[in-house]
Design brief:
- The chain is of the alpha/beta class.
- Helix content is 45%, strand content 17%.
- The protein has a seven-stranded mixed sheet with strand order 6-5-4-7-8-10-9, sandwiched between helices. Strands 1-3-2 form a three-stranded antiparallel sheet.
- The longest helix is centred in the middle third of the chain and has 19 residues.
């Protein structure tokens, strides 16, 4: 409804917001009151204003979570979640039963929803784009490949921090035009390119690979196929950075187990522990070096080609 943008310049009444959005005034007030109760807004004398949390729902906010919120509230998420009981009973994802297609096939058929999903993934990438180069020193590398990198946000972060690096962003062919534009807008067109392809078939050669929020989408067998492709395209000593929410093996609080339920209902993948990543990596020609925390829900799993 765009309320976050409407409130960017200051507090407004529910009636004023309803008039602009074309919504029912009473229902709008009840919605805003509910948002205030969980800290997204604050209510004062019948008017509502954004909190710092609510400001993240603005499209132009640094680290905007607007598209993530839209993605989580879109049909391809909440319809499968309505079948959580069936997913737990059968151990099977519920996208086919509720959407009539696998998740990424649904996105292909619904470009508006797909656009929000891409925006959500960009938002997650922005959380670690500047930090990942700080937790991993890439100064010894010359060629980076961002596998399934969408707009190349992570690649751009590494290239800005490492002027010796050149980069390749691998994603589906239809993503290449927008990725190429994003790379140009970042001022990196001379050092980075976007190429279309299928990471289950082949990946470009590099000595540093970044794989962010990709492995958690896929089964162990599919992950092994992808990682073997990386091993075939690289030489001993090449590094792989797997950026994911790693499930704590000690049961400490984490967003990862809840994201894992998202994978359960939506996709063949799962969130994994460091031990599970180590098993996948060792089976495909890599050894796990360590797992490095970031100031986000994600960690950087560092592995080396043996």
């Amino acid at each position: 409804l765009g309320f976050a943008e409407q409130l960017a310049n200051g507090a407004q009444s529910a009636r004023a917001l309803a008039t602009k959005a074309g919504t029912d005034p009473d229902a709008t007030y009840r919605l805003l009151r509910g948002l205030a109760s969980v800290g997204v807004l604050v209510q004062d004398s019948g008017r509502f204003q954004l909190t710092p949390l609510g400001a993240t729902l603005r499209a132009d906010a640094p680290g905007s979570m607007r598209d993530m919120a839209r993605t989580m509230m879109a049909e391809p998420h909440w319809l499968p979640w309505g079948k959580l009981l069936e997913a737990v009973r059968t151990g099977s994802r519920q996208t086919g039963a509720t959407l009539g297609a696998e998740l990424f096939e649904y996105y292909d058929a619904h470009p508006d929803v797909r656009q929000s999903f891409f925006g959500a993934m960009h938002g997650l990438s922005m959380l670690v784009a500047s930090e990942a180069p700080k937790v991993y020193d890439a100064s010894a590398h010359r060629e980076l490949c961002d596998v399934g990198g969408s707009a190349g946000t992570i690649a751009a972060g590494f290239l800005r921090a490492n002027p010796q690096l050149r980069g390749t962003v691998l994603d589906r062919p239809e993503v290449v035009p927008s990725a190429t534009q994003a790379i140009a807008e970042a001022g990196l067109a001379e050092r980075c390119r976007a190429v279309g392809g299928d990471f289950f078939a082949e990946v470009p050669a590099a000595d540093l690979y970044v794989i962010k929020h990709i492995l958690h989408d896929w089964s162990d067998d599919q992950c092994r196929t992808l990682l073997r492709n990386v091993a075939r395209s690289s030489s001993p000593g090449a590094r792989v950075l797997v950026i994911e929410m790693v499930v704590p093996e000690d049961g400490s609080p984490s967003a990862a187990p809840l994201m894992d339920l998202n994978m359960l209902v939506l996709l063949p993948g799962r969130e994994r522990t460091a031990g599970q990543y180590s098993e996948l990596l060792s089976a495909t020609g890599f050894r796990l070096i360590d797992v490095r925390p970031t100031h986000s829900p994600m960690q950087v799993v560092v592995a080396e080609r043996v």
